[in-house]
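MODEL INPUT / OUTPUT PAIR
PAIR INDEX: 1
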Amino acid sequence: MNISLFLSRRPNALILAVVTSLLLAGAHARTWTSADGSKTFEGELQSYDATKGMVTVTLPNGRRLSFSQDKLSEADITFARENAPRAAGSSSSSGSIKELPDVLPDPDGEEADMSKPVQVYILMGQSNMLGFGKPSALQGIAAEKYPYLVDDAGEWTVRKDVRNVFVMCSGNSPAKDQQNDWMTIQRNIGPEIGIGHHLGYVTDAPVLILKSCIGNRSLGWDLLPPGSEPYEHGGKMQPGYRGTPDDPGGDTGGDMSKGWYAGCQYDGDVAAAKKVLENLDKYYPGAKDYEVAGFFWWQGDKDMRNPAHFEMYEKNLVQLIKALREDFDAPDARFVSASLGQTKKGSKGGDGQILDAMEAVAKSSDPEFEGKVAFVYTHPLSKGGSSSGHYSGNPETYMNVGEAMGKAMVELLRGN
């Protein structure tokens, strides 16, 4: 039955003519069923917009139609949700984003579909993002708490569809490779492990987890993004992007020989990540193309100690998202932030203001952010200690936060 029956009441003769033409053309597509089960039609799924509840299909004659999902059976809605490339306005052409199971299975050892562009996720921040979880403390509990990390023999599993890359620089000096391998446990554990396993599971395309950061950096100074203007706090002017304390509105042009400037670490981290992408095959063997699908941000320890920084955190975070999307030519890239593990909601200190800022940006109704930014409250996930003490090296904290951030990104990608 032609799809017009889903959308309008048309004469049966016309319907039969259209169906006949499709059959004569030898069309081959999925058979879709109406919500009441009484009608069917042939069509190829093009996209599914979960936010609007809209499905787009291409008929065998080449005509493309969009209509509300409530005209389809539950089985068809599920198929569209699990198999459609994301709707227009998303940043990824990676294909379907699968649903997450309650417990991730072990990696299957298979490579990703290399015909698709590598889906790049850039991780930034300070020492929280660096990761100080001790692998030795994870070995005895991984099989129970994170079973996808170990195989039946008790060895660490390896994802052959996710690359784990870590580069580091100080300021905008040249970066050094810290890690470049398939996703597995090899060194201290950061949130990239949980993030990478979850994104690797749901994505058919190859995934590159690209961490570019260093410790002891603030968003209000070291990582201040382009577009940030000078402002007054406590009777003193604070530098804008590429300004200095002596010349808040100046532009050093990124010249570190004149001393550290506002945004110096932002420049370095972005440049380091771009260099990886310029040499993609070195970091993801066999890759030809990529797209930046999302950013992860775990930071705030240094800003929480400076009122001039934590009081501006929300504004700076908004500007950070905009700047990163522009720098990486990813206008719709998703963004996930995470609070400091020791901070409880309701805290009146600088750490609490940072948490509130992250949550406010994630709840923004601005079209640039709504449905594209998420926030993870990490206090319930932390196993003690604080960000300044690297959570005493407890790997569960880093795994728990990484899993939560990964799941949050999956929800953004699926449009849920």
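PAIR INDEX: 2
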Amino acid sequence: MRSYRFQLYPNRETTTKLMKHLELCRFTYNKLLEILEKEKLKNPKDTQALLSQLKKQYPKLNQVYAKVLQMVNHQLWSNILGLYKKKTKGKKVGKLRYKGENRWKILNYNQSGFKIIKTGKRLDILKLSKIGYIPIRLTRPIPGRVKGVIVKRYPTGKWYALVQVENTTNFLPKTGKTIGIDVGLKYFLTDTEGRQIENPKFYERTLQRIKLVQKSFSRKKKGSSNRKKWRLKLALLYEKLTNQRNDFLHKLSRYYVNNYDVIAIEKLNISGMVRNRYLGSKILDASWGKFFQFLSYKAEEAGKKVLTVDPKGTSEGLTSEQPDRDYISSHRILKRGLGQPWQPVERRPLLLITAHAVVEGQVFSGKQEAPTQEI
């Protein structure tokens, strides 16, 4: 199942209705959790059966589409399962918390209760049961059959529809080319064709702005209108940062999937690596995990392959001072992914490509005349 995000443009009346439905979902979640803890229920079907009783006890719940309330119950048990999995891994976990005011953000229309109406204009229409018609901007065609729609309110106050579609395949022409990729901190990645993609620096200005706004926000009196104003400023900056990062990662992963049939990467334990007190924050900022995720699902849809290999030994005998360290590692990753023995590679000048060039779609081939010296 794939999700595509499109912005919604509800008017004031519809926004009020959406907020009311969110509050009723939060109320339902808390009631189900309260009963579950009190009666020690062990099965999702037990709490599912309680929904009809809650509707009789609280008639206001009938204002919400029935399937949406069922998905509230589903979310409750998903949270319980998440805690259980953490506990089985030896992590210390507490009990589920009740949702506070404004802490419920989604309305999940699963399988039914929605309809997308094409208008042929800039904005189309999303029809939601018991809410009505909401303008939606479809920025791209929706591939495949729509299985569900999740309406989500973001901290900026904007509304989006996450349109869930069955996995589809759109096989791209074969290129007959393979490539190995080594990610890093000095450079975002280095590949076997001699490209070095710089770590994005174009959002450093956004990060600096976030620090300044966060400092001002923390000084505002809690509950004041001024604090709410600065919270919105902060949310808008975080949204901008997320959009900048995702734009870079989407375009870079799309380039490799379009141009290569087989892409070899390391299977990194990123969750373990971020525990490094000196490098953890830098690894998180680099977003390697999200890049690998984008590569994988794009390759699956396009009929391409992403090979993951054990990272052990891919940098053996190399020092951080070597300018072509990552280039050599990328070749080792590719050979290991293809199941071929490692052979020395020819030294070549590496081509630095800026993050801005990636965003502008200017990732060049990087093929250059290579000296015959082996490394």
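PAIR 2 NOTE: The chain has two domains: 2-165, 178-359.
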